[in-house]
Amino acid sequence: MSDTEWLSEDEREAWLALVSIMFRLPGAVETQLRSEEDMSLAEYLVLAMLSEASDHRHRMSELAAATNTSQSRLSRIVARMEKAGLVTREGRLDDRRVVIAEITDAGIERIQQAAPAHVRHVREIVFDRLSSEQVGQLVEIGRALNRGPAEDVATGLRSIA
């Protein structure tokens, strides 16, 4: 225990601020999406990631990483969205282990409907409180903290081609 390098006062303050953000922001975002758009943050992120892809498709494994959820949880979420007609899933012919999710026209319409209120809320609770310099710092901090085994999450989704 004597080998422990304790946090400095600045590090402790930064850590407590980060912990507060980790607990408060997801709940605030989830509450807005559920109350105003009747969807979860994970559902919103799935639709957003698929709508932003050039071909509106992604591997399920990449969607799980990008939405910070397990593949089994994502599979349940996408199954519900598939029943609602928002996405489709299909296996790749050349590799049956790969499942591709694709957004439907109804899914695109749904994300276009939900995005304005969501973006307004995110702007209000995050970006309106930061200077442009702080936004740049936040990007760098996020990249630094996301480096490691899950680095491909921080660098974005790979192409499914």
Automatic annotation (TrEMBL):
Residues 15-147 form the HTH marR-type domain. It comes from Kocuria gwangalliensis. PANTHER family: MARR FAMILY REGULATORY PROTEIN (PTHR33164:SF99), TRANSCRIPTIONAL REGULATOR, MARR FAMILY (PTHR33164). Transmembrane segments: none annotated. This is MarR family transcriptional regulator. InterPro entries: ArsR-like_HTH, HTH_MarR-typ, MarR/SlyA-like, WH-like_DNA-bd_sf, WH_DNA-bd_sf.
